[in-house]
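Hi, does anyone understand the following?
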Amino acid sequence: MPHFNRISAGDTIDLIGPHPYNMHRSNPYPEDHPMVRQLPEFHRFVRDRGLPWKVWADEVGFSSFRLAATTPQAIYTPCSELEQAQLLVRMMVTQLANGVDKLFWYDFRNDGTDPTWPEHNFGLIRYDNTPKPALVAYANLIHHLRQARWLGTYTIGGGGIAYAFADRAGQPKLVAWVRKGSTTEILRVLSDVSALHVRDIFGSVTTGPVSNHQFALELSATPVFVEGLTEADLKPFLETRDVHRR
C-alpha cells in the first residue's frame, strides 16, 4: 500500500480485494485470519492520507469436505456442512464488523460430487441443487445485516466473541459465539427489559428471562443473535473503532 501511494497511484485505486481463504489447517478459524489483524493498519493508512480505498473480500469460502487418502495435503480445513454454515456467518460478521465493505462467497453450487475433494464442496447448494445448511444461514444473516449500522465490539468475557449492531429498523442486536466448545456467559442488562430473544443462524428463536439485571447466554461455535437489548445496555461494554466511513 505505501508503495502504491508513493508512486501516485492512490487516486486510481478504488478498492483492495484480498482472497481470504483458510489455507492452513493449523489456523482454521476466520477470526484469526491474518487479514483481520491487518485491517486496522489498512484503515489508519487510508484515513491518515485521505484515500478513498475500500476493502472487498472478493472471494471467500469454506469447503464441506472430509479428509481421505486422495485429498490434497495441507490445503484447506475440512468441515461438515453444519460447520460450513457456522464458519460462513463467523467470517462474514467478523470482516464486516472490522470494516470490510463487501464479501463474495465462493461458490453458489458444488462443482462436483466427490466428498473428499475440496474444490467440489464450496457451494451453498449441492451438485444436485439441494440446499446445504450454509444457504439457510446466509439468507438469515442477510435478513439481520441488511443496512445494519455497526456499533462496535462487545466485551463479553470468557473467550466469547461478540459484535453489536443496529438493524435497519434501528433495533440493537448482538451476534456472539466462541471459537470452539461451549460456555455460558452472563450479560449485564442495565435497562428494565424482562426477557431477551436468542435466534440461531437458521432463524429459530428461544426466549429467556432477565433476572436481577443478568441474562445467562449459552454460547457455542454456532453464532447466535441476541435481541431485546437497548443501546444503553450495550454502550458500557462496547469498544468502538472508526472503520466504517459510509
Q: What stands out?
A: The chain has two domains: 2-145, 149-239.
